Amino acid sequence: MRPSAGGVDAVTAHVARALGVAVVRSAPLAGGQVGQTQRLLLADGREVVVKSSAGTPLEVEAFMLRYLSERAALPVPDVLYADGELLVEGFVEGSTRTTQGSERHAGALLARLHGIAGDAFGFERDTLIGPFPLPNAWTSSWPAFYAEKRLLAFARLAAELGRLPDSLRDRVERLAASLPARFAADGAHTAPALIHGDVWSGNVLTNGERIAAFLDPAICFADSEVELAFIDLFQTFGPAFHRAYRAVRPVDAGYERWRRDLYQVQPLLVHVALFGGPYLAGLEARLVRLGV
After folding, report:
1. Is 0.85 topped by the overall pTM?
2. Domains in the chain, ordered, with CATH?
3. Which of 50, 119, 229, 257 is the most buried (most CB within 10 A)?
4. What is the CB-side half-sphere exposure of residue 228 using CA atoms within 13 A?
5. What SS3 class is residue 121?
6. Residues acting as catalytic residues
7. What share of the chain is helix, strand, coil (3-state, %, to 5)?
8. Whole-angstrom Cα distance, residue 279 to residue 283?
9. Per-block average pLDDT, block size 10, for the chain (292 residues)?
């Protein structure tokens, strides 16, 4: 790490006050859609990661990390401090490169996470995915929850940002309206399971053959296949993950037949809202395969 250019800036001064220890060095870290991220060396020898953002309630991310650590025993960074504009985590040494061993470990960890059942779909509070609020009002019906809180919510957001054409928004709305009939015809049992919600390669740190930490969660109780569809969309893990996961939690044929495409619509809408055009083709391809 190198010393901060121009001395201790406002963020590192905030960290020093919050933790009661001086900051010796800082270096920027890449990645993420929320504010700025730095790696700091403290005078007591600890290394920490600090996120700062004036527009995102980082205490929500802190809540999610603590929830996963305490309720699910999922490996996540320790939260050292959080307020509305600052999140300080313990630094986790690791790589974003996976091996077959670390993928098997990820499969076992996420299968265990998905074994934590909820009484309904949603969560006790709204959470975050990237910079966006994730609405989580408790809902007993999975088709209703996914239609209203995921498809329609993020189609509306992407349209309001000027990044989703009206023609595609209309098709997403038709898809949402069709979900009760589709799930009734499918006959698959859908139960609320705790999910991480944002498992892409940049949010997974490995240490050799093990997972060191999952980062930046977007938690709720959902159909566990939502997690698998996200992983498949961004090719986070390969066959070793799926074999380990399915050894604990079997996945029926309806996932490959249509539900994977369905559950990839929402993260594609999030990415359309973030980045626009590059993700529109992928969104349209899923809508075509789903017949809307």
Report:
1. yes
2. 10-90 (3.30.200.20), 100-289 (3.90.1200.10)
3. 50
4. 26
5. strand
6. 198
7. 45, 20, 35
8. 6
9. 48 93 92 78 97 88 97 96 93 96 98 98 97 97 98 98 98 98 93 98 97 98 98 98 98 96 98 96 98 98
